[in-house]
């Protein structure tokens, strides 16, 4: 694992594979990238180089609260700068759930660097907006209001960040609770505003403007409904909907390991990328280059 200072935060990352086109993959939630290593290894074996990184406030990366309109845009801007830092001029970009939102925002803001999108477990709908707004923002706003930043630091997510890097305790305890609440409220408002969008944080017009090849693999729970993934694929001018044996489940949330196994998912993605690499279209940039 390697670290780079990106926009004031120490982003931890790993590069897997030594040849082929770049794929930048991000997990969902605020989870670290470790869960994607088995998938990244399979993609690397098929001739791709994979960039995994811990987003700001995730995994081993610094705790840092940037005063931006949404947490997802903070992540998108961080990934853009990380790609520039690594001198990766163009990449296939993809992610799961929150990593999917980040990927879409990056593609919308910097389409020149995104050769293709891999969107998995697209999040959307009012239930998802309510559930995630509370999980990622309101719960911490309440902690800060009731017991200050010491209570936020003791929460399991931030306690794990402190265990990974003790300096994160000083960052949290040194931040005024009022300022923390202000940023959390702004990020929460941004997420909740997406409740009636095709996907959280992404308007129909945003999706229609994207013209790079895009693979959409829907989720199948109430947070990532299959109908949301299908709708997003239908709005994309170059979208392909793939549903590898999935069926909608009566569950609020399905864990990653119970959603789709790594080997099946890797094969679906590899087949998609190789199909487009054979076509005389913008996906030509996805072709792995032996020995590169």
Please give a quick description of this structure.
The protein is an alpha/beta fold and 292 residues long. The chain has helices at residues 37-45, 71-85, 98-109, 126-147, 149-154, 156-164, 167-173, 177-192, 204-209, 226-235, 256-259, 262-277; strands at 2-6, 9-16, 22-26, 49-53, 91-96, 114-120, 214-217, 239-241.
Structure description:
The chain is α/β, with parallel strands linked by helices and 292 residues long. It has 2 domains: 2-125 and 198-286, Rossmann fold; 131-190, no CATH class. It is built from 12 helices and 8 strands. The chain has helices at 37-45, 71-85, 98-109, 126-147, 149-154, 156-164, 167-173, 177-192, 204-209, 226-235, 256-259, 262-277, and strands at residues 2-6, 9-16, 22-26, 49-53, 91-96, 114-120, 214-217, 239-241. Strands 1-2-4-3-5-6-7-8 form an 8-stranded mixed β-sheet. Strand 1 and strand 2 form a beta hairpin. Helix 2 (71-85) packs across helix 3 and helix 4 runs antiparallel to helix 8 (177-192). The longest helix is centred in the middle third of the chain and has 22 residues, at 126-147. The protein is globular, with a radius of gyration of 18 Å. The two termini are 22 Å apart. The relative contact order is 0.14. Mean pLDDT is 93; it is low at 282-292.
CATH architecture of the largest domain, by name, is 3-Layer(aba) Sandwich
Give start-end ranges of low-pLDDT stretches.
282-292
Number of continuous helical runs: 12
- Any idea how many domains? 2
Spatial extent as radius of gyration: 18 Å
The CATH superfamily title of the largest domain: Alpha/Beta hydrolase fold, catalytic domain
């Amino acid at each position: 694992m390697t670290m780079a200072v990106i926009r004031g935060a120490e982003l931890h990352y790993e590069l897997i594979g030594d040849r082929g086109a770049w794929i930048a993959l991000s997990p969902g939630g605020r989870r670290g990238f470790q869960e994607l290593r088995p998938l990244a290894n399979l993609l690397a074996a098929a001739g791709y180089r994979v960039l995994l990184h811990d987003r700001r406030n995730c995994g081993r990366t610094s705790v840092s609260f940037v005063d931006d309109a949404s947490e997802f845009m903070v992540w998108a801007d961080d990934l853009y700068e990380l790609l520039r830092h690594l001198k990766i001029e163009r990449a296939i970009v993809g992610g799961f759930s929150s990593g999917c939102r980040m990927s879409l925002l990056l593609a919308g803001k910097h389409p020149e660097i995104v050769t293709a999108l891999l969107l998995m477990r697209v999040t959307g709908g009012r239930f998802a907006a309510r559930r995630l707004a509370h999980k990622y923002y309101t719960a911490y706003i309440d902690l800060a209001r009731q017991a200050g930043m010491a209570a936020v630091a003791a929460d399991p997510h931030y306690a794990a960040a402190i265990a990974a890097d003790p300096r994160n305790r000083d960052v949290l305890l040194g931040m005024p609770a009022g300022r923390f609440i202000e940023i959390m409220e702004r990020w929460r408002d941004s997420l909740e505003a997406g409740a009636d969008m095709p996907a959280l944080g992404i308007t129909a017009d945003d999706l229609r403007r994207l013209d790079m090849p895009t693979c959409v693999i829907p989720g199948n729970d109430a947070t990532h409904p299959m109908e949301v993934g299908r709708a997003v694929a239908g709005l994309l001018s170059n979208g392909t909907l793939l549903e590898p044996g999935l069926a909608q489940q009566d569950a609020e949330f399905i864990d990653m390991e119970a959603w789709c196994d790594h080997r099946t998912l890797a094969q679906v993605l590899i087949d998609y990328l190789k199909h487009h690499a054979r076509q005389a279209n913008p996906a030509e940039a996805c072709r792995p280059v032996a020995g590169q």
